[in-house]
Structure formats: C-alpha cells, structure tokens
C-alpha cells in the first residue's frame, strides 16, 4: 500500500474522504490500460480542494471513484469513514442522495422539468414532503440568485444559469461533499467567475467540502489546496499559500 | 469503521409516477406520439382482425341459417308436387334430417329396425363414395376410369367386375386407410340390393302421397295451393304422411313470393312488356330478366310503373305497386344472402373466439409484428434517455425507481394507444364489413359477449405489450452504473 500523501502543515483536521491504493484499469490481459495506478489521498472536512491535471490523467476517473459512481479495480475509498465498496445498492443510493452533491461540466439538468422541479428531484428521493421540498428548493434557488426564474425550463436558460440550477440541485439534501467536475469549462470568463464565487460561498458559509476538478487558474484564488494528478498518480499536493511562493519558480507552469 | 445508516427510499406512488411520466412525455411529444401511433396501429390491427373475423363468421352463419330455411320451404313445396328421385332418397337417408326420415319411414311402410338398417347402409354408401372421390388421381384413373362413383358401384355388383376391381386395388397397394375394401365388398354384394328395395318402397310411398295431394287439390299446382292455403291444408299434409317443419304461414308466404316471381318472369316474356321494360332500363330486349327488373323496381315510383306495364297484359290484380316493391325487397335480400355465402358452408364455431384456423394464424402473426414494433419503439425511447437515467441515479434514485418511471410511461402510452387503436380497429372492421356484407354485417346478436371479449383482449394485449416491452430495456438501463450510462451517447 502506498504511503498517504500528507501536506506539510496538515493540521489535526477531520478527514472526510480517504483513498488507499486506488487503482482502476480497463480491458484485460496485455490490453490492460490503467486510468489510476494507486492513488492515496486524504481530503479534510470543509476544505476546498482543486484537482488539476492534463486530459487523460485519470482526473475524471478519480472523481467517479470518490463520488461512488464507479467501483475501483483495487484499493479502498472511505467516505466519512465508511468503506464504499461494502455498501449495498440501497446504501449507495442513500450516500449519493444525502452525502454527496454532483455538479457536471454539461449541467445534466432534466430537460422536461422546471428549475424548481430539477432542484427538488433529490428531495423526492430523500422522502421530503412536497411543501417542504418547494420551500427549500426556492431557498436554494435564492442562494444561487435564480429565485425569480424557478418556473423556467433548462432550454430557456443560459449556460451559467443552468449551472447555477445544477449547484442548487446538488445542495438540495445538504450534502457534506460537493464534487464539481470542471464546472466552468463550458462557460465564459465572467459567468465562470460567478460560479466559482457561489462555490466559495457555499464552502465558507456552510462548511461543505468541495472537490473541484478544473483547468481554470482562477480557481487557485478560491481553493485551500491543489492536487495535481498525472498518469494516474498524485503528482503533488500543495496549500494555496505555498503555491503563491512557488508560482514564479516553476516558470508559470502552474 | 463507521456504519452508514441508510433509510429506505420512499416508493414512487402511482399519482407521482403518472405525473412524472406525463411531464416527460409532454416534453418528448413527437417521440411519444410515434410510440403511441405504433401501439395504436398494432391494437387496431388486432381489434380489426378479431372483430371482423367474429362478425363475418356470424354473418355467414346467419345467412346460412336463413338460406337453409328458405331452401327448405322450396324443397317442401317441390316434394308436394313430385316424388324424390332414388339418388335423392339415398343421400337424404345418409344425411338424416329427422323430419325427412320420419316422412320416409311413413311412406316406406317398414318397421323401425329395418328402416334403421337401410339408413346405416346409405351412410356406409356415402362413406365409400367419398373415399372413392378422395383417391389420388392415378388411382382414380385405374379404379374408376370414366365412370362416376355411383356407376362404378353399380357395375361392381357383377361378380366378375368386382373380382377385376379387387385385383386392381391389390396391385395399387393403397393401404387400408384409403379404401375400406371389406366394407365395399359387403356393400356391393348384398347391401345395395336391400337399400334399393327400401328406396323403391319410399319412392312408391312418396308417389302415392303426391297423387293424393293432387287429387285433394285438383287443377292447382302445389305452389299455388301453398300460396293460398285452404283451411284443411295442414291436416291434408299430415294425413298424406308429410312432416310439417316450420309453420305453415311462413311456408305460404314463401310460396306466394315464389308464385309472384314466377308470374312476373312469365309476364316478362310477353313482347310488349319486354320492350317497354327494355326501353325504361335502357337495355336490349334480350337482356331483360327478372333480377334486373326487380332491382329497378325497389323504390315505390318504379314499382308502380312496373305494375302499370304488367297490368296491360292482364296481370293478376294483386300485383300492384307496393306488392311488387315487397317482392323486389325479398328477392334482393335472398340474392344478397346467396352472394355472401357463395358455395361455402360456414365452419362451426370452435377454438379461440370461434376464429377459423387461417384467421388465427393471421392474428398470431400480427401479434408478433406488434411485439417487434413496440419493443423497438420502447428500446429507442430508453436508449435516448441514458444520460437522464445516469443523472437521476447520481441524484440518488434506486434502480426500481428508474424502472418504474419507464414502465409507467409505457403503460400510459399503452392505454392511450390501446384506446385509439380500439376505435380505429372498430371503424376499420365496420367499414370493411359494410363494404362486403352491407347491413347484414351488423347483426351482432348472440356474439356480443365474444365481441367485447375480443376488444378487451386486444386492448389488454396493447397495454401489456407496451409495459413488457419497456421492462427489458429499462432493466438494462437501470442496472448500469451511472458513469457507464452517461458515457453511452
């Protein structure tokens, strides 16, 4: 088992996601290709961590693993001290519904539902009564600044607005973790900035752990730590403060 | 390690399921419309086959019953005027209608046992004749040659001919299934003799009865007597040994119509009548006949015109306009019945909903076509929603929820498609039936229950088909892990 990657000033913070020797391979025999080759990492409660790396580095695979969307070939994932591999279908659904919120690059809103309906879908699965779901849904839309557009369908909204609805949806059951897979990749500069600000606010005000994969350098301004993934391995993990100092040294590679 | 405390998800209630399915369908209106259309067509086809088949069978049976009744009247009148031929007597004995047999027994003046033996021989004769006509053509050529089966059987009564026949039969090696040789030999050596005696006795008795009838009602044909029956008509018939099946009023109505039709066709032979009818109908005089003339006289105005024409040549007084119209009506009805039936004898009810074998295959085949069409439509509608399925699975939906969503949607589409198809199929069946059988098609008395059952069957099949066809694809989709489903585009 690979040693855990620890940052230098790792405080005595509570761990929320821990992976141990995470491997994922596709194909069999000689044709086996590895997407992850043994990732060991620790993510702490209430931190905002950015995951960076070139395309094909295994970033998305890593995301799917820690989001319990896909099973690893080898290794373990502990989410809130629970081993994901040992969960039944019901418990997995519960985990996805209650503990983790997902934000996708392509929004993935349900096309035939209004903004409010989209936001309340996970509440339906959680068994929230409709009146309560409606109240909380409007509250969340207010949080992302779309309260007066609750009756609009995705097709009637801009990309930035759709992503804001997606953020509101991911927050609908007050999850402990938000997984955002390149949330700003499809958006222009200004809208992307808005999205990052909303994510930062959720992180600061509600203490939600946010794991965000990105190519967007602006994320460096809002995150606590940055993790680089390359060729299926964790290259390094740094705090933001250290990055600032090193930025000049690595010749703008960042 | 901490245990996760997961509470079971609330099940999707029917109301919420229908609401979700409806909102999904209204968004994908076009796709849903196509699926519903396929379902509707499938159901319509089934309904059409079942309803049309049932009604057509019923119509033919009704037509057969009515025609047999009418033909029975005709034969009854003929029997009053003329004795049956020996061939007719033998075939009637074999078929064995109870009323006819009773008449024959009275005329033959034989005791019950002897008569029954004669009848058994007639049945055997019919069987042997049938087996002779069903032989393969080569065997027929060798065994029968240019003769008819009756002539052959007659010739075999000579021992030499029978010996030759047996030799040829042995050479052919047809096997015992084709011809029952012992039965045939027994028949030609002794039994046909007895049958002939019985037949002759019956014929003699019948002739006596006919003579008695014409003596009792002198100078009138049987048809005329039956048309205006004297008070002692029924009693006379009984005393002469005739059976009275059907009531005499109907018999005399039939006789009146037959008499008047005959009268009109006789009058049409008159040159004056023929030429004026030809002028009116714009025909050549040689083409004027009873059917065309009566078809022309179906409405009151033309019937009055025809009665006027007939009156010029001393037609009977009662052939006035309304009477001619009534005759034309009856004539048309009977022509229609004969046209429907052709030479067929409708098959008896049996099997699934009384459908004939050929139709049952068609229904099965159409059913298979429906299954393929609907399964394809459902497969399409599930695969194009893989991303949506993956998304709601990410949001915490259970496999069961995803499946329920699709099965609900499919069931709703099935119900709508089923109703539309039901109406469509009924309209199609009605139109086709009306074109083929006219008003007679809609006599649904007696098979109303089966019709309802057929319609219910088609509807249920439509709905079940849709729901079942959705189960497979959505089962696959629901069990995919969310990321796999999202990768499928």
Describe the structure.
The complex is a heterodimer of chains A (254) and B (489). Chain A has 254 residues and is an alpha/beta fold. Chain A has helices at residues 59-66, 89-98, 115-126, 130-143, 159-170, 189-206, 219-222, 240-246, and strands spanning 15-26, 33-44, 48-52, 74-79, 82-83, 100-103, 177-181, 209-213, 225-230, 233-239. In chain A, 45% of the residues are buried. Chain B is mostly helical and 489 residues long. The A-B interface holds A 64, 67, 69-71, 78, 80-83, 87-91, 93-98, 102, 104, 108-113, 121-122, 124-127, 169, 173 and B 1-4, 6-10, 16, 23-24, 26-28, 387-388, 390-399, 401, 481-484, 486.
Secondary structure blueprint with pairings:
The complex is a heterodimer of chains A (254) and B (489).
Chain A lengths: L14 E12 L6 E12 L3 E5 L6 H8 L7 E6 L2 E2 L5 H10 L1 E4 L11 H12 L3 H14 L15 H12 L6 E5 L7 H18 L2 E5 L5 H4 L2 E6 L2 E7 H7 L8
Parallel strand pairs in A: 3-8, 3-9, 6-7, 7-8
Antiparallel strand pairs in A: 1-2, 1-4, 4-5, 9-10
Chain B lengths: L13 H14 L1 H53 L4 H10 L2 H11 L3 H22 L3 H7 L5 H7 L3 H14 L8 H36 L5 H6 L5 H7 L8 H21 L2 H11 L8 H7 L3 H12 L9 H21 L15 H27 L2 H9 L4 H39 L10 H32 L2 H6 L2
Helix pairs in contact in B: 1-19, 2-12, 2-16, 2-17, 2-19, 2-20, 3-5, 4-9, 5-9, 15-16, 17-20, 19-20
What are the defining features of this structure?
heterodimer; A: 254 residues; alpha/beta; six-stranded mixed β-sheet; four-stranded antiparallel β-sheet; 8 helices; globular; disordered C terminus; B: 489 residues; mainly alpha; 21 helices; elongated
| Low-confidence runs of chain B | none
Work out the largest interface and the residue count of each chain.
A-B, 37 and 33 residues
Bulk shape of chain B = elongated
Fraction of residues in β-strands of chain B: under 5%
Beta-strand segment tally of chain A: 10
Distance between the termini of chain A: 29 Å
Biggest sheet statistics of chain A: 6 strands, mixed
User: Any idea what the radius of gyration of chain A is?
Assistant: 18 Å
The share of residues in helices of chain A is 25-40%
- Which regions of chain A have little confidence, pLDDT < 50, spanning 5+ residues? 6-10, 245-254
Distance between the termini of chain B: 39 Å
> What's the SSE pattern of chain B?
HHHHHHHHHHHHHHHHHHHHH
